[in-house]
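Subject — a protein and its fold
Fields — amino acid sequence, C-alpha coordinates
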Amino acid sequence: MDFTTLIGNSLAQLIAPTTAAYVLAAIGLNLHFGMTGMLNMGQAGFMLLGAYGFAVTQSMGWNLFASLLAALALAAIYAVLLGIPTLKLGPDYLSMVTLASAEIIRIIGRSTSLTNLTGGSAGISPQSFTQQFEAASPLPAGRTTFLLWTYSNNTANSWWIRIVGWTVVLIAVLLTWRWFNSPWGRVLKGIREDQNAVRSLGKSVTSFKLQSLFIGGAFGALAGILFVLPRSVQPDSLGRQVTFYTWTILLLGGAATILGPVLGSCVLWVLLTFTKELMRQTIPQTLISSNQIEALGWIIVGIALMCLVIFRPQGMLGDRKELAFNV
Protein backbone atom coordinates (compact mmCIF):
# COMPACT_ATOMS: atom_id res chain seq x y z
CA MET A 1 0.00 0.00 0.00
CA ASP A 2 1.27 3.47 -0.94
CA PHE A 3 0.76 5.36 2.33
CA THR A 4 2.33 8.56 0.94
CA THR A 5 -0.23 8.78 -1.85
CA LEU A 6 -3.05 7.79 0.50
CA ILE A 7 -2.22 10.41 3.13
CA GLY A 8 -1.20 13.07 0.59
CA ASN A 9 -4.39 12.82 -1.48
CA SER A 10 -6.56 12.76 1.64
CA LEU A 11 -4.93 15.71 3.39
CA ALA A 12 -4.88 17.69 0.13
CA GLN A 13 -8.61 18.22 0.70
CA LEU A 14 -7.74 20.45 3.66
CA ILE A 15 -6.57 23.15 1.24
CA ALA A 16 -8.66 22.28 -1.82
CA PRO A 17 -10.72 25.05 -3.49
CA THR A 18 -13.79 22.81 -3.44
CA THR A 19 -13.48 22.42 0.33
CA ALA A 20 -13.21 26.20 0.72
CA ALA A 21 -16.23 26.70 -1.56
CA TYR A 22 -18.33 24.37 0.58
CA VAL A 23 -17.15 26.18 3.72
CA LEU A 24 -18.47 29.46 2.29
CA ALA A 25 -21.75 27.84 1.24
CA ALA A 26 -22.14 26.30 4.71
CA ILE A 27 -21.37 29.64 6.39
CA GLY A 28 -24.19 31.19 4.38
CA LEU A 29 -26.49 28.33 5.33
CA ASN A 30 -25.42 28.78 8.95
CA LEU A 31 -26.71 32.34 8.82
CA HIS A 32 -29.99 31.10 7.39
CA PHE A 33 -30.51 28.10 9.64
CA GLY A 34 -28.13 28.32 12.57
CA MET A 35 -28.83 31.98 13.33
CA THR A 36 -32.30 32.63 11.91
CA GLY A 37 -33.92 29.19 11.88
CA MET A 38 -34.82 29.24 8.17
CA LEU A 39 -34.82 25.85 6.41
CA ASN A 40 -33.23 26.89 3.14
CA MET A 41 -32.91 23.86 0.87
CA GLY A 42 -31.87 25.93 -2.14
CA GLN A 43 -28.37 27.18 -1.34
CA ALA A 44 -27.22 25.69 -4.64
CA GLY A 45 -29.42 28.26 -6.39
CA PHE A 46 -27.39 31.12 -4.89
CA MET A 47 -24.17 29.32 -5.84
CA LEU A 48 -25.29 28.80 -9.44
CA LEU A 49 -26.36 32.43 -9.82
CA GLY A 50 -23.02 33.60 -8.45
CA ALA A 51 -21.15 31.31 -10.83
CA TYR A 52 -23.17 32.47 -13.83
CA GLY A 53 -22.97 36.13 -12.86
CA PHE A 54 -19.20 35.95 -12.64
CA ALA A 55 -18.55 33.72 -15.65
CA VAL A 56 -20.94 35.43 -18.08
CA THR A 57 -19.71 38.93 -17.30
CA GLN A 58 -16.08 37.82 -17.45
CA SER A 59 -16.69 36.32 -20.89
CA MET A 60 -18.12 39.71 -21.89
CA GLY A 61 -14.87 41.43 -20.89
CA TRP A 62 -15.91 43.02 -17.58
CA ASN A 63 -13.22 43.57 -14.96
CA LEU A 64 -12.98 41.30 -11.93
CA PHE A 65 -14.57 43.73 -9.48
CA ALA A 66 -17.55 44.40 -11.76
CA SER A 67 -18.07 40.65 -12.27
CA LEU A 68 -17.99 40.11 -8.52
CA LEU A 69 -20.59 42.83 -8.03
CA ALA A 70 -22.73 41.29 -10.76
CA ALA A 71 -22.68 37.93 -8.97
CA LEU A 72 -23.64 39.55 -5.65
CA ALA A 73 -26.35 41.60 -7.38
CA LEU A 74 -27.91 38.45 -8.80
CA ALA A 75 -27.86 36.90 -5.32
CA ALA A 76 -29.54 40.02 -3.90
CA ILE A 77 -32.26 40.03 -6.55
CA TYR A 78 -32.87 36.32 -6.03
CA ALA A 79 -33.06 36.80 -2.24
CA VAL A 80 -35.66 39.55 -2.63
CA LEU A 81 -37.75 37.66 -5.19
CA LEU A 82 -37.56 34.50 -3.12
CA GLY A 83 -37.88 36.06 0.31
CA ILE A 84 -40.78 38.50 0.02
CA PRO A 85 -43.46 35.91 -0.87
CA THR A 86 -42.05 32.97 1.13
CA LEU A 87 -40.52 34.14 4.43
CA LYS A 88 -43.88 34.08 6.17
CA LEU A 89 -44.25 30.37 5.40
CA GLY A 90 -43.57 27.69 7.97
CA PRO A 91 -40.21 25.84 7.95
CA ASP A 92 -41.50 22.82 6.02
CA TYR A 93 -43.10 24.88 3.27
CA LEU A 94 -40.09 27.20 3.05
CA SER A 95 -37.77 24.24 2.51
CA MET A 96 -39.93 22.97 -0.37
CA VAL A 97 -40.13 26.39 -2.01
CA THR A 98 -36.38 27.04 -1.81
CA LEU A 99 -35.58 23.57 -3.14
CA ALA A 100 -37.95 24.07 -6.07
CA SER A 101 -36.61 27.55 -6.86
CA ALA A 102 -33.02 26.27 -6.97
CA GLU A 103 -34.11 23.55 -9.39
CA ILE A 104 -35.84 26.18 -11.55
CA ILE A 105 -32.57 28.12 -11.79
CA ARG A 106 -30.68 24.96 -12.76
CA ILE A 107 -33.22 24.04 -15.44
CA ILE A 108 -33.23 27.57 -16.84
CA GLY A 109 -29.42 27.54 -16.91
CA ARG A 110 -29.33 24.37 -19.01
CA SER A 111 -32.13 25.52 -21.34
CA THR A 112 -31.23 25.39 -25.03
CA SER A 113 -32.82 28.80 -25.56
CA LEU A 114 -30.07 30.36 -23.40
CA THR A 115 -27.15 28.46 -24.94
CA ASN A 116 -25.55 31.67 -26.25
CA LEU A 117 -25.53 33.10 -22.73
CA THR A 118 -25.13 30.18 -20.32
CA GLY A 119 -23.79 27.49 -22.62
CA GLY A 120 -26.85 25.31 -22.00
CA SER A 121 -26.24 21.87 -20.54
CA ALA A 122 -22.60 21.99 -21.71
CA GLY A 123 -21.95 25.06 -19.55
CA ILE A 124 -19.20 27.67 -19.85
CA SER A 125 -15.60 26.53 -20.29
CA PRO A 126 -12.98 27.92 -17.85
CA GLN A 127 -11.05 29.51 -20.72
CA SER A 128 -13.91 31.98 -21.06
CA PHE A 129 -13.83 33.42 -17.54
CA THR A 130 -10.57 32.63 -15.71
CA GLN A 131 -7.98 34.67 -17.62
CA GLN A 132 -8.35 37.89 -15.62
CA PHE A 133 -8.35 36.00 -12.32
CA GLU A 134 -5.16 34.18 -13.26
CA ALA A 135 -3.56 37.40 -14.55
CA ALA A 136 -4.21 39.07 -11.18
CA SER A 137 -1.97 36.55 -9.42
CA PRO A 138 1.31 37.93 -8.00
CA LEU A 139 2.83 34.44 -8.06
CA PRO A 140 5.47 33.59 -10.68
CA ALA A 141 4.68 31.25 -13.54
CA GLY A 142 5.37 27.56 -13.09
CA ARG A 143 4.67 24.98 -10.41
CA THR A 144 5.44 24.93 -6.68
CA THR A 145 5.77 22.04 -4.25
CA PHE A 146 4.71 22.57 -0.64
CA LEU A 147 4.99 19.63 1.76
CA LEU A 148 3.23 16.73 -0.03
CA TRP A 149 1.50 18.72 -2.75
CA THR A 150 2.55 20.14 -6.11
CA TYR A 151 0.27 22.46 -8.07
CA SER A 152 0.51 25.09 -10.76
CA ASN A 153 0.98 28.57 -9.35
CA ASN A 154 -1.63 30.35 -11.43
CA THR A 155 -3.52 28.17 -13.90
CA ALA A 156 -6.36 25.69 -13.44
CA ASN A 157 -6.41 24.02 -9.98
CA SER A 158 -3.72 26.35 -8.70
CA TRP A 159 -2.11 27.70 -5.53
CA TRP A 160 -3.54 31.11 -6.45
CA ILE A 161 -7.12 29.80 -6.23
CA ARG A 162 -6.30 28.21 -2.87
CA ILE A 163 -4.81 31.42 -1.48
CA VAL A 164 -7.77 33.53 -2.58
CA GLY A 165 -10.35 30.94 -1.53
CA TRP A 166 -9.08 30.39 1.98
CA THR A 167 -8.48 34.12 2.47
CA VAL A 168 -12.15 34.71 1.69
CA VAL A 169 -13.03 31.90 4.12
CA LEU A 170 -10.98 33.60 6.87
CA ILE A 171 -12.77 36.90 6.24
CA ALA A 172 -16.15 35.14 6.28
CA VAL A 173 -15.35 33.41 9.58
CA LEU A 174 -14.31 36.72 11.18
CA LEU A 175 -17.48 38.42 9.93
CA THR A 176 -19.62 35.56 11.21
CA TRP A 177 -17.94 35.74 14.62
CA ARG A 178 -18.65 39.48 14.76
CA TRP A 179 -22.26 39.08 13.66
CA PHE A 180 -22.95 36.25 16.11
CA ASN A 181 -21.97 38.56 18.96
CA SER A 182 -23.70 41.70 17.65
CA PRO A 183 -27.18 43.08 18.46
CA TRP A 184 -28.23 42.17 14.92
CA GLY A 185 -27.16 38.58 15.49
CA ARG A 186 -29.01 38.40 18.78
CA VAL A 187 -32.20 39.51 17.03
CA LEU A 188 -31.73 36.72 14.48
CA LYS A 189 -31.26 34.20 17.30
CA GLY A 190 -34.42 35.54 18.91
CA ILE A 191 -36.29 34.99 15.64
CA ARG A 192 -34.95 31.45 15.54
CA GLU A 193 -36.22 30.71 19.05
CA ASP A 194 -39.52 32.63 19.06
CA GLN A 195 -40.29 35.07 16.28
CA ASN A 196 -43.57 36.13 17.88
CA ALA A 197 -41.68 37.36 20.94
CA VAL A 198 -39.32 39.35 18.70
CA ARG A 199 -42.28 40.77 16.78
CA SER A 200 -43.88 41.86 20.07
CA LEU A 201 -40.77 43.98 20.74
CA GLY A 202 -41.41 46.02 17.59
CA LYS A 203 -38.86 44.29 15.36
CA SER A 204 -39.70 43.57 11.73
CA VAL A 205 -39.19 39.82 11.56
CA THR A 206 -39.61 39.72 7.77
CA SER A 207 -37.01 42.45 7.30
CA PHE A 208 -34.43 40.66 9.47
CA LYS A 209 -35.11 37.36 7.73
CA LEU A 210 -34.65 39.05 4.36
CA GLN A 211 -31.32 40.51 5.50
CA SER A 212 -30.19 37.07 6.67
CA LEU A 213 -31.32 35.49 3.41
CA PHE A 214 -29.39 38.03 1.36
CA ILE A 215 -26.15 37.89 3.37
CA GLY A 216 -26.18 34.10 3.52
CA GLY A 217 -26.98 34.02 -0.19
CA ALA A 218 -24.07 36.37 -0.89
CA PHE A 219 -21.73 33.85 0.74
CA GLY A 220 -23.38 31.22 -1.44
CA ALA A 221 -22.68 33.30 -4.55
CA LEU A 222 -19.01 33.65 -3.57
CA ALA A 223 -18.91 29.91 -2.98
CA GLY A 224 -20.28 29.35 -6.47
CA ILE A 225 -17.53 31.50 -7.99
CA LEU A 226 -14.83 29.64 -6.08
CA PHE A 227 -16.40 26.30 -6.96
CA VAL A 228 -16.28 26.88 -10.73
CA LEU A 229 -12.88 28.59 -11.01
CA PRO A 230 -10.96 25.28 -11.24
CA ARG A 231 -13.59 23.79 -13.57
CA SER A 232 -16.35 24.80 -15.98
CA VAL A 233 -19.71 26.34 -15.10
CA GLN A 234 -22.00 23.35 -15.56
CA PRO A 235 -25.54 23.71 -14.17
CA ASP A 236 -25.91 20.05 -13.21
CA SER A 237 -22.74 20.21 -11.10
CA LEU A 238 -24.53 22.74 -8.86
CA GLY A 239 -27.77 20.85 -8.47
CA ARG A 240 -29.68 19.79 -5.38
CA GLN A 241 -26.92 17.36 -4.33
CA VAL A 242 -24.71 20.38 -3.60
CA THR A 243 -27.31 21.72 -1.16
CA PHE A 244 -27.48 18.33 0.53
CA TYR A 245 -23.67 18.21 0.86
CA THR A 246 -23.76 21.71 2.35
CA TRP A 247 -26.38 20.67 4.89
CA THR A 248 -24.30 17.62 5.77
CA ILE A 249 -21.25 19.81 6.32
CA LEU A 250 -23.18 22.25 8.51
CA LEU A 251 -24.77 19.56 10.68
CA LEU A 252 -21.49 17.63 10.87
CA GLY A 253 -19.52 20.61 12.15
CA GLY A 254 -22.35 22.06 14.20
CA ALA A 255 -25.02 24.61 13.34
CA ALA A 256 -24.95 27.99 15.10
CA THR A 257 -21.19 27.73 15.63
CA ILE A 258 -18.41 29.85 14.17
CA LEU A 259 -16.00 27.13 13.06
CA GLY A 260 -18.54 24.37 12.47
CA PRO A 261 -18.73 24.91 8.67
CA VAL A 262 -14.93 24.90 8.39
CA LEU A 263 -14.47 21.73 10.43
CA GLY A 264 -17.43 20.00 8.78
CA SER A 265 -16.20 20.63 5.25
CA CYS A 266 -12.62 19.56 6.01
CA VAL A 267 -13.70 16.39 7.82
CA LEU A 268 -16.23 15.37 5.16
CA TRP A 269 -13.92 15.69 2.16
CA VAL A 270 -10.84 14.28 3.91
CA LEU A 271 -12.82 11.31 5.23
CA LEU A 272 -14.48 10.70 1.87
CA THR A 273 -11.20 10.91 -0.06
CA PHE A 274 -9.40 8.68 2.46
CA THR A 275 -12.14 6.04 2.25
CA LYS A 276 -12.11 5.96 -1.55
CA GLU A 277 -8.31 5.94 -1.83
CA LEU A 278 -8.06 3.15 0.76
CA MET A 279 -10.56 1.00 -1.15
CA ARG A 280 -8.80 1.64 -4.47
CA GLN A 281 -5.50 0.47 -3.02
CA THR A 282 -6.82 -2.56 -1.13
CA ILE A 283 -9.72 -3.92 -3.20
CA PRO A 284 -8.88 -5.47 -6.60
CA GLN A 285 -10.61 -3.94 -9.61
CA THR A 286 -11.76 -7.41 -10.60
CA LEU A 287 -13.87 -7.44 -7.45
CA ILE A 288 -15.26 -3.91 -7.51
CA SER A 289 -15.12 -1.23 -10.19
CA SER A 290 -14.06 2.40 -9.82
CA ASN A 291 -17.67 3.61 -10.13
CA GLN A 292 -18.75 1.19 -7.44
CA ILE A 293 -15.97 2.45 -5.17
CA GLU A 294 -17.30 6.00 -5.63
CA ALA A 295 -20.77 4.91 -4.56
CA LEU A 296 -19.51 2.70 -1.73
CA GLY A 297 -17.41 5.56 -0.39
CA TRP A 298 -20.49 7.73 -0.04
CA ILE A 299 -22.38 4.86 1.60
CA ILE A 300 -19.68 4.36 4.25
CA VAL A 301 -19.39 8.08 4.95
CA GLY A 302 -23.19 8.34 5.03
CA ILE A 303 -23.44 5.62 7.66
CA ALA A 304 -20.81 7.40 9.75
CA LEU A 305 -22.76 10.64 9.49
CA MET A 306 -25.99 8.88 10.44
CA CYS A 307 -24.30 7.62 13.59
CA LEU A 308 -23.10 11.14 14.34
CA VAL A 309 -26.61 12.56 13.94
CA ILE A 310 -28.03 9.83 16.18
CA PHE A 311 -25.48 10.06 18.98
CA ARG A 312 -24.43 13.73 18.67
CA PRO A 313 -27.17 15.63 16.82
CA GLN A 314 -25.63 19.02 17.60
CA GLY A 315 -22.53 18.19 15.53
CA MET A 316 -18.88 18.10 16.55
CA LEU A 317 -18.72 21.69 17.81
CA GLY A 318 -22.39 22.41 18.48
CA ASP A 319 -24.11 22.97 21.81
CA ARG A 320 -27.29 20.94 22.37
CA LYS A 321 -28.75 23.82 24.38
CA GLU A 322 -28.08 26.39 21.65
CA LEU A 323 -30.77 25.32 19.21
CA ALA A 324 -34.42 24.73 19.98
CA PHE A 325 -34.63 21.63 17.81
CA ASN A 326 -31.96 19.97 19.94
CA VAL A 327 -33.69 20.60 23.26
User: Anything to note?
Assistant: Residues 205-228 form the longest helix (24 residues). The chain has 13 helices and two strands.
